[in-house]
C-alpha cells in the first residue's frame, strides 16, 4: 500500500460515482492511460471502468457557443452578457442555477455563493431533490439533524438483523454488502432484487404502500411488547400520538393495503424484536408524494425499538449520489446556507454574510425547489446555468422539461461529456473530471474524504471553481471567489462554523495526514454544534478495513487537543439528539394512496430504479464499455395478459408520456407492476412517464409509482 497520499506516479483518491466513495489508488499506465486499484475495500464495475471517460473521444475539450468550438474568454464573456441582459430586463431571479449531488463540497459551496453573491438570485436548487430530500426532511424532523448514516458502516457487521427498505445495495453499491454479510436481512421491495435474494425475509408490498407497512409493524411491536419503554420515556417525545395513529393498523387491514400477508408481518416484527438491529431506508421509501411521512414511519419504528444512538444499532439512510451528503450541506439548496443552515435564519445570514464580506440584507431569501424551478423555465426564469446535472434525462416528466429547457433565452451547461442537457445548451463549458482535480466529498456516513488529482486536465478544460471565479469577476461580484480547492475548503469551513454540519475543525492538512473525520468537527475554539454529538473522549473512527491499505495514517493514534476535535463518527451516543430538548421526536403519520393508482385506463404500476452497470442519467456510464441497455421488466403472467412476447418491444404509457424498450420477462416482479431503470435517454427514457407530483415537505417527485398501460410495439 501507499504510505503517502500521493507519490508522483500514484495518488490515493476515491471513486467518482456513488456515495459509498470506495477508496482507489490511481496510477499512470505506460501507454499514457490511468489505471485504478481498490484501496482497502472493493470496487464495483463502475469504479473499475471510470478511467475510460478520461480520454474518451466524446470528452468535451473546448467551450461551445451555439454548437461551435469557441475560446474560453469569448464563452465566458457570452455567459456574463447573457446574465446581465436577462437580469436587466427581468430582475435577478430570472437567472437560475441548477447544481448536482456529484459536485465536490468545494464546488457545491462556491456555486451557492455564486448564486447568492454574484447573481443575487434566490433561484438555486439541485438534483439532490430527486435523491435524498425526503430522508433529509424526516431525519431533521426526528433527530434535529440529517446525516445519512449517523454511524460508520462497519457497525452494521455487529448487527443481528438489518431491515432494508427500498434499498438494493447488492446492485447499486456492491462493495457495501461485505458489511451486511453477517446480519440477517429483512428486505422490503416490490421486486426480488439481488439484495432481496440474500434476505432471510423478503416482503413485497404494492408500490406506494410502505408507510402502511411500517405503521403495521409498529402496531405489532406495541401489541407484542417489543417497544423499548425506557428509551421511549427518557429519550423521545410524541410516542402517545403515534401509538394512537398506528392502533388502527391491524395486520389484516395492512395486508389489504400492502398485500403483505399477516404471517409475513409477524415474521418481520419478530426478526426486529431483539438483538442488535438497524433500519436503513433508501430511495424506495423516499421517492413518493408522501416520501417524508414514509421515512418518518420507519424512523418511528426504529425509535420505538430504541435503536438510534445505541452501539451496533440504529437508523440510517443510504445516500445515492457521490456527494449526496455534502451536496446538501453547503448551500446549493434553495432554502439553505452553508453549514446546513436555513437561509431564512437571521443568525445564519449574519454569519455567512460576514464570511462573504457582504451585508446580510443583500442575501436573497429562499428560492424554489427543483421541480418548481424547472416548472418556471421559460416563464419567469429566462436563463439557466447547470453544473453537474442532466435534468433532460433525470427529471420526471422529462419530455416537458426538455421543451422548457429549449424555451429558455439562454442555457449554459458545465459538464465533461456531451449529455442530453449539454445538447440543448447555447453555451457549453468543458470541466475537469475526478482524476484531474482536488477537493473533498462527504460520504454516506458523514466522513469528509479527499479527492486528489493524478494528472492535469486536457488542454482547454478548466475546473468548475475556475469557471465560477472567472464569471464572478466578469459580473463584478462584491466578494472574492478563490479557485484553489484548499482555499475554497477553508472558506467553506469558516462559513459552516456553528452550523449543524460544522466543518470548521477540518482542513486539507488533517485529511492528508490520514485522519478520518466525520462532521460535526468544530474548530477547537468553538463549542460543539447543536448536536449532542460532542465526541466521546478518545473516540475514533473504527480501525476498519476501509482505509488500512491506503490512506496514510497518522503516525500514532494520539492526538492532543492542539490537533483539534476528532470528529463524530457516531452521533447521539452521548444521550442527546440534536433537537432543542435533546429528545428524538416521533411524528404520527397516516397512509394515503399514491397520486396515481391503477385503474381501467392505466391498469399497471410503473416503478423505477438503477441497474448494476449504470449510474444516474447514464451520461457517463453509457459511454464506458460496461454492458447494459434499457429493459422493461414484467411478470410472464402480465406479458400474457397484455399479449407481449419475450423480447418484444414494449411501449409503456402514462398520463404524461411514453417510453419504449425491450421486454424482459421475469418472475422477480409483481404481476401488477412493471420496472424500468432511469439511465436512458430519448425514447427509452422512463422519466417521460414518471409523475412529477412532489412531496409537499421535501419537494421530492414520485419516481417510485405511477399508473401506466403497456402494449407490444414489436409489429410496428
Ligand atoms: Fe464506485 Fe459506488 Fe461502485 Fe464503489 S460502489 S466502486 S463508489 S460506483
UniProtKB/TrEMBL annotation:
Q: Which organism is it from?
A: Stackebrandtia nassauensis (strain DSM 44728 / CIP 108903 / NRRL B-16338 / NBRC 102104 / LLR-40K-21)
CDD domains in the record, alphabetically? MopB_CT_Fdh-Nap-like
The record ties this protein, via InterPro entries, to: Asp_de-COase-like_dom_sf, MoPterin_dinucl-bd_dom, Mopterin_OxRdtase, Mopterin_OxRdtase_4Fe-4S_dom, Prok_molybdopt-oxidoreductase
Cellular-component GO terms for this entry? membrane
Recall the GO molecular function terms of this protein's record: 4 iron, 4 sulfur cluster binding; metal ion binding; molybdopterin cofactor binding; NADH dehydrogenase activity
For the biological process aspect of GO, one term held by this record is:
respiratory electron transport chain
Q: What is this protein called?
A: Molybdopterin oxidoreductase
> What lineage, starting at the top, does this entry show?
Bacteria, Bacillati, Actinomycetota, Actinomycetes, Glycomycetales
Q: Which PANTHER family match?
A: NADH-QUINONE OXIDOREDUCTASE SUBUNIT G, RESPIRATORY NITRATE REDUCTASE
Disordered, as annotated region: 519-579
Amino acid at each position: 500500500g501507499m504510505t503517502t497520499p500521493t507519490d508522483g506516479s500514484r495518488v490515493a483518491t476515491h471513486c467518482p460515482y456513488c456515495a459509498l466513495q470506495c477508496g482507489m489508488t490511481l496510477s499512470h499506465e505506460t501507454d499514457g492511460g490511468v489505471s485504478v486499484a481498490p484501496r482497502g475495500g472493493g470496487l464495483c464495475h463502475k469504479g473499475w471502468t471510470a478511467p475510460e471517460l478520461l480520454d474518451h473521444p466524446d470528452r468535451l475539450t473546448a467551450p461551445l457557443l451555439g454548437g461551435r468550438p469557441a475560446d474560453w474568454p469569448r464563452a465566458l464573456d457570452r455567459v456574463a452578457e447573457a446574465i446581465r441582459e436577462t437580469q436587466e430586463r427581468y430582475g435577478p431571479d430570472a437567472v437560475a442555477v441548477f447544481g448536482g449531488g456529484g459536485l465536490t463540497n468545494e464546488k457545491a459551496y462556491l456555486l451557492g455563493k455564486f448564486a447568492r453573491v454574484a447573481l443575487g438570485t434566490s433561484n438555486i436548487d439541485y438534483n439532490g431533490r430527486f435523491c435524498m430530500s425526503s430522508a433529509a426532511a424526516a431525519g431533521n424532523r426526528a433527530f434535529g439533524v440529517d446525516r445519512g448514516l449517523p454511524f460508520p458502516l462497519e457497525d452494521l457487521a455487529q448487527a443481528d438483523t438489518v431491515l432494508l427498505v427500498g434499498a438494493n445495495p447488492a446492485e447499486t453499491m456492491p462493495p457495501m454488502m461485505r458489511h451486511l454479510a453477517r446480519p440477517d436481512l429483512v428486505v422490503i421491495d416490490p421486486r426480488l432484487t439481488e439484495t432481496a435474494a440474500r434476505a432471510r425475509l423478503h416482503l413485497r408490498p404494492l408500490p406506494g404502500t410502505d408507510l402502511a407497512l411500517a405503521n403495521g409493524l409498529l402496531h405489532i411491536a406495541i401489541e407484542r411488547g417489543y417497544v423499548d419503554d425506557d428509551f421511549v420515556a427518557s429519550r423521545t417525545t410524541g410516542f402517545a400520538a403515534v401509538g394512537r395513529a398506528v392502533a388502527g393498523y391491524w395486520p389484516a387491514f395492512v395486508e389489504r393495503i400492502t398485500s403483505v400477508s399477516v404471517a409475513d408481518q409477524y415474521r418481520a416484527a419478530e426478526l426486529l424484536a431483539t438483538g442488535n438491529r438497524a433500519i436503513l431506508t433508501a430511495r424506495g421509501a423516499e421517492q413518493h408524494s408522501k416520501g417524508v411521512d414514509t421515512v418518518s414511519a420507519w424512523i418511528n419504528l426504529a425509535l420505538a425499538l430504541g435503536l438510534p444512538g445505541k452501539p451496533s444499532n440504529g437508523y440510517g439512510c443510504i445516500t445515492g449520489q457521490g456527494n449526496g451528503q455534502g451536496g446538501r450541506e453547503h448551500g446549493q439548496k434553495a432554502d439553505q446556507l452553508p453549514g446546513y443552515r436555513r437561509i431564512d435564519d437571521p443568525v445564519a445570514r449574519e454569519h455567512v454574510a460576514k464570511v462573504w464580506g457582504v451585508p446580510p440584507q443583500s442575501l436573497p431569501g429562499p428560492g424554489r425547489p427543483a421541480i418548481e424551478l424547472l416548472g418556471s423555465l421559460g416563464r419567469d426564469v429566462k436563463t439557466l446555468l447547470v453544473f453537474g446535472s442532466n435534468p433532460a434525462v433525470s427529471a420526471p416528466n422529462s419530455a416537458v422539461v426538455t421543451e422548457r429547457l429549449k424555451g429558455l433565452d439562454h442555457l449554459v451547461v458545465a459538464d465533461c461529456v456531451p449529455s442530453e442537457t449539454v445538447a440543448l445548451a447555447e453555451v457549453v463549458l468543458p470541466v475537469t473530471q475526478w482524476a484531474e482535480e482536488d477537493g473533498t466529498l462527504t460520504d454516506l456516513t458523514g466522513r469528509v474524504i479527499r479527492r486528489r488529482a493524478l494528472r492535469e486536465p486536457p488542454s482547454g478544460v478548466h475546473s468548475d471553481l475556475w469557471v465560477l471565479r472567472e464569471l464572478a469577476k466578469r459580473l463584478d461580484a462584491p466578494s472574492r471567489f478563490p479557485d484553489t480547492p484548499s482555499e475554497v475548503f477553508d472558506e467553506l469551513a469558516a462559513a459552516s462554523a456553528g452550523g449543524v454540519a460544522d466543518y470548521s475543525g477540518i482542513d486539507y492538512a488533517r485529511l492528508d495526514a490520514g485522519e478520518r473525520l466525520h462532521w460535526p468537527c468544530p474548530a477547537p475554539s468553538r463549542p460543539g454544534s447543536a448536536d449532542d454529538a460532542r465526541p466521546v473522549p478518545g473516540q475514533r473512527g473504527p480501525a476498519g478495513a476501509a482505509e488500512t491499505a491506503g490512506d496514510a495514517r497518522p503516525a500514532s493514534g494520539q492526538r492532543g487537543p492542539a490537533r483539534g476535535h476528532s470528529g463524530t463518527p457516531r452521533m447521539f451516543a452521548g444521550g442527546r439528539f440534536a433537537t432543542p430538548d435533546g429528545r428524538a421526536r416521533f411524528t404520527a403519520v397516516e397512509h394515503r394512496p399514491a397520486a396515481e393508482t391503477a385503474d381501467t385506463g392505466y391498469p399497471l404500476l410503473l416503478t423505477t430504479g438503477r441497474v448494476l452497470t449504470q449510474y444516474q442519467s447514464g451520461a457517463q456510464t453509457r459511454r464506458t464499455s460496461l454492458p447494459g441497455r434499457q429493459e422493461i421488466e414484467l411478470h410472464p403472467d402480465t406479458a400474457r395478459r397484455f399479449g407481449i412476447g419475450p423480447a418484444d418491444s414494449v411501449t409503456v404509457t402514462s398520463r404524461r408520456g411514453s417510453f419504449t424498450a425491450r421486454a424482459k420477462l421475469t418472475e422477480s416482479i409483481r404481476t401488477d407492476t412493471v420496472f424500468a431503470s432511469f439511465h436512458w435517454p430519448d425514447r427509452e427514457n422512463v422519466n417521460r412517464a414518471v409523475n412529477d407530483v412532489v412531496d409537499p415537505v421535501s419537494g421530492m417527485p414520485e419516481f417510485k409509482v405511477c399508473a401506466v398501460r403497456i402494449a407490444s410495439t414489436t409489429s410496428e
